[in-house]
Design brief:
With 183 residues, this protein is of the alpha/beta class. 25% of the residues lie in helices and 32% in strands. Strands 4-3-2-5-6-7 form a 6-stranded mixed sheet, sandwiched between helices. Helix 1 (12-37) packs across helix 2. It starts with a strand and ends in a 5-residue tail after the last strand. It binds 1-O-pyrophosphono-5-O-phosphono-alpha-D-ribofuranose (PRP), manganese (II) ion and magnesium ion. 1-O-pyrophosphono-5-O-phosphono-alpha-D-ribofuranose binds at residues 46-50, 104-112, 164. GO terms for molecular function: glycosyltransferase activity.
Amino acid sequence: MHEDIQEVLFSEEEIAARVAEIGAQITKDYAGVVEQDGQGIILISVLRGAAIFMADLAREIKLPLEMDYMAISSYGNGAKSSGVVRILKDLSSEVEGRHIIVAEDILDSGLTLTYLMKNLASRNPASIEVATLLRKKTLAQAEIDCKYVGFECPDQFIVGYGLDFAERYRNLPYIGILKPEVY
Ligand code: PRP
Ligand code: MN
Ligand code: MG
């Protein structure tokens, strides 16, 4: 284990098993939709944290799909987000009439997904659902309807499997709690 990690919450094996389950569920749920539509799903992730989850999830969905990416930034550099969001990189594809699944690594305050869902809905997709690997247990969370949730996690500073602290630890293969003395 990395010396900055206090406790492993989800091991590499646990994550892989859960991602496979979510992928299998999506495959089941969308098989008919994709067949009827004649077009695959568009899996969208928000850079950068969700890139690892999305890459693994995509390979567990046994249906035609496209992958696309958006980068957004919250204004201000405080520890807490200001609530104002702007697009740094937009999608490459048109999503009108398409079935979208947003892949996120974690749902915390809900600010990111609130913005994203509103933004994507304005492009008139056929449907939008959210797959989040982690959902933090916190009272201050915006109400977001997530069809696929990997794990509930405690309101602690967690890193790994895409999640960073100051851009570090994203490449840890497991998800763990960061030692308080590190931040
Ligand atoms: C993190 C995480 C989610 C978001 C969740 O991204 O990857 O996208 O925060 O928090 P919220 O529900 O409070 O909005 P971050 O903005 O740190 O950027 P990153 O993905 O590049 O790490
Ligand atoms: Mn993110
Ligand atoms: Mg981050």
